[in-house]
Design a protein that fits this description.
about 375 residues, 15 helices, 8-stranded parallel barrel, alpha/beta, RNA-binding, about 40% helix
Length: about 375
RNA sequence: GCCGAGAUGGCGGAGUGGACAAUCGCACCAGACUGUAAAUCUGGCGGCCGAAAGGCCUGCUUAGGUUCGAAUCCUAAUCUCGGCA
């Protein structure tokens, strides 16, 4: 993998670049669409490509449980398994084993995390499993993504300081072990870039020491995780501001689970984020929340989105947006999309997802163009003011 | 025409003397969605006032009646469904 910076914005830390991977280039800033179980729900690889996506992010935890590494081995990698030709990323599964259960009653029963690793029960059949940093790397080697993540344990702001400090200490150790195991595994096969994850929440000192650790260890890229990067743009701002001054030019930066829609994207990009993934964009599509740009009435207040299930769209003969060039808007009316969504037709998931993914990819293209032309700030103004 | 069953909120359907403005489901309305256990989840849903707690009004086909009290019991009417002619 090689990251090449094309242009840096003068007023902000936004940057345009290219990530060269063994399976294609990713022009940055870019959105990595999420295909957790080697599938972007509702889309096939042609749809994904036509919606403008260059990279897909899958998940170690889910694919390890199903179909399992032995099955993926038969295909070669998730690329062959899902027939996606382009670059891929896998998340390490650290996030999943730590926090997948916190919504249920089984908190503390289904997962036990020690310095050695995470023992947990499968959400599918209850079987006991363990993922260690080494094992996460081994699984990700089989999955064969171009970019892989170190095994970590995200903190939660609601947790006690003591618990979070333990997670942070453990994550340093886990990431170092991930790195050592990864070095061994890269002796064969296609090169997989390993990103180290910078934790620390809103604490500048911790963030900085994590960043220093990631840079000095020799990871190929930098990832930001935890909830401060999540849904709230104001929080994302604070979280990224802790270390955005220290990001190097020669390492790509990924925001894991960046939320907040267009606003969150601008916040992240102007702080040096090159790639990000997000599940809401595709998940919201399936429940009928669709993005619209400023020309169609998108604002910070409405979060640049509409709900296609609202009765006002019943019978509308025009598309969601006349300005949108996505397959759905070019071929179908808003009234038909409303009808499909209200009725839970499988086609609704596809058309809605295509729209949202295309929308975000288009925004990323506009952002990239504006950085190259030197007018990123005015683009941002036209969206956020 | 006769015999039998029934009529509850936009719909389906509970409740069969007081805890009922009425379980629940659907529909509808509003909201949420971070490295996806999510085609998911949450809230509202007779009217009026209130941020809420709560208060007032109207209400279980219609008209009477019994009762301290009726969606629930009685009488009649209307309508619907099933069976027989």
């Amino acid at each position: 993998m090689k990251f090449k910076l094309v242009k840096k914005d003068k007023k902000t830390k936004a940057r345009a670049g290219v990530i060269h991977t063994p399976h294609g280039d990713i022009k940055t800033p870019a959105f990595s669409v999420v295909g957790t179980k080697a599938s972007v729900k509702g889309l096939d690889p042609i749809d994904i490509k036509n919606a403008g996506s260059e990279v897909v992010l899958a998940n170690t935890y889910h694919l390890y449980l199903r179909p399992g590494v032995e099955i993926i081995k038969k295909y070669g990698s998730i690329r062959e398994f899902m027939n996606w030709q382009g670059p891929t990323i896998t998340d390490s599964g650290g996030y999943q084993v730590s926090y997948l259960w916190t919504r249920g009653e089984e908190v503390g029963q289904s997962v036990k995390i020690t310095d050695h690793g995470a023992r947990f029960r499968s959400h599918i059949d209850g079987a006991l499993h363990e993922i260690t940093p080494e094992k996460s790397m081994q699984i990700q080697k089989v999955l064969g993504a171009d970019i892989i993540m170190a095994f970590d344990q995200p903190i939660k702001l609601a947790n006690s300081v003591r618990k979070n400090n333990e997670s942070l200490r453990r994550t340093f150790d886990w990431e170092e072990r991930s790195f050592r195991e990864w070095q061994k595994l890269q002796e064969t096969g296609d090169y997989q870039a390993l990103y180290g994850i910078v934790h620390g929440g809103l604490d500048k000192k911790t963030r900085k020491s994590f960043l220093d650790f990631v840079l000095s260890t020799g990871f190929d890229g930098i990832a930001f995780g935890d909830e401060t990067i999540g849904a709230d743009p104001a929080m994302t701002k604070k979280g990224l501001d802790t270390v955005s001054d220290y990001l190097p030019d020669d390492k790509p930066v990924h925001a894991l689970g960046l939320g907040g829609g267009p606003e969150g994207i601008f916040v992240a990009v102007e702080r040096g984020v090159d790639t990000f993934d997000n599940t809401g964009i595709t998940r919201m599509a399936r429940s009928g929340i669709l993005f619209i740009n400023p020309e169609d009435g998108g604002t910070i207040q409405n979060k640049f989105r509409i709900s296609i299930i609202k009765s006002k769209y019943r019978g509308q003969t025009t598309p969601i947006s006349k300005n949108c060039n996505c397959y759905s808007c070019k071929n179908f009316s808003a009234g038909y999309m409303h009808h499909l969504t209200v009725n839970g037709e499988p086609l609704a998931a596809r058309l809605n997802t295509i729209h949202n993914v295309f929308f975000v990819n288009s925004l990323m293209n506009k952002i990239r163009d504006s950085i190259e032309k030197g007018d990123f700030t005015s683009l941002k103004k036209s969206w956020l003011s």
